[in-house]
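BUG: 3D viewer hangs when loading the predicted structure for this chain

Environment: internal workstation, default settings.
Expected: structure renders.
Actual: progress bar stalls at 90%.

Input used:
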Amino acid sequence: MLSFTEQLKELIFNIEKSGGSAIQKITPPGDLILKLKSRIIKQLRKETEPLPRRVEYFLVEEFNEGFFEEGIRVSLVHLNEMGITDLEEVFEILCNVVDKRLDDILNRNKKHNQHTYNRSISTNDAIIKSIEYVWEEYGSESTILYNFAKQRFLILWDYRINCWKTTGLGRFLLELKPLQAITFLLTIDLSFNTGERDIRHISYNELKTLNESNDKHSTHIIPLHIEMLKLLGVIRIFSDSYRDYEITPLGKAVVESVLAKENPMNEIVTALIQNEEQGINFEGSEKELGELKNQLSSEMIEKGTRESIENAIALYRKGSYTDSSRIFFPSIESIANQMLSVKGEDPNDHKKFPGLVRKINKLEELKVIPNDLSKGIEIAYSRNKVLHGEYEPLEQEYAYPLCIAAIIYLRRMLKEFQTK
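Structure tokens produced before the viewer hung:
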């Protein structure tokens, strides 16, 4: 569990410093994919029918769902990492690899592999074996890390300067402790999941079923999700069947926190994604606090509100995240009150504005703040136990992501206030 998240942090840190590996952006040429697909179809048509039913599953999964293209891509990356870039040599190696994969589908290698193990091998065969392994494992170790980070929007490719760059989600990950990091990553998955057939991001129902199951044979999870959960240390696997696994004790604790209605990681994931969409980059909590302090110099902000925010910042730096959050969110309401007053509204009219959510909604109606900011604050404020007193002080780390979300929302509120 800890190893993979630390490797992920190392990757993000290196991308921050150097822009990462351009090799990981390699895309297989279309004509190469077509030639290799055509090779498989031609060989299948030469076979005596009927063929094993596995052929159908192979064509559906590999050709229709993009696994074939991804297999070629990770193979090209691995070949480039080994310095093999000659197009003819690359094509010959990949032809050998797809031929061997087809042999496996048609059960041609079954007898040969049962009792034979050679102590020597040629260089070319060793290269082909390594590519077979990389294809089956969805990439080398470095490629798996890049894919994982890319699919969860921790990193992205900057086409203007041709290098990788870290997103706000990636920078926030660097600040988290190991178990917090796992919770954060799984929360991103739930936020990005598009349905039960999403092979890249695990679903709420999969995690819920995994958490509730006491039988390691009864829970059905997409194989790629099993690989991801294994990397994160959430489950342990007992065989290669993708059916013989169970949730680990630490994994269970993490999954339960991810599934919880008041999971504070929901707020920070939402806030960071919305910021990226608005072109606002999260540069780390210290940078955010510095920017927030700069914003406080504005004469538009009332003295009492300014002092409250400065107090919240001091509490945050002491690690008192709960108390800090309980000041930051009311400070957002104070700024909302000022914004309403500027627009001729009476924020003290409790019938019209019974709470922060209604005030925020009104500011959206008046086009003072954008929709994403309104919804983000509404969700964070209305459902979180920290802000409503349902909280045990020993759980300080629970409040940390909520605190960061509050800082992000407050900064954006101040920006909107100062530009209107």
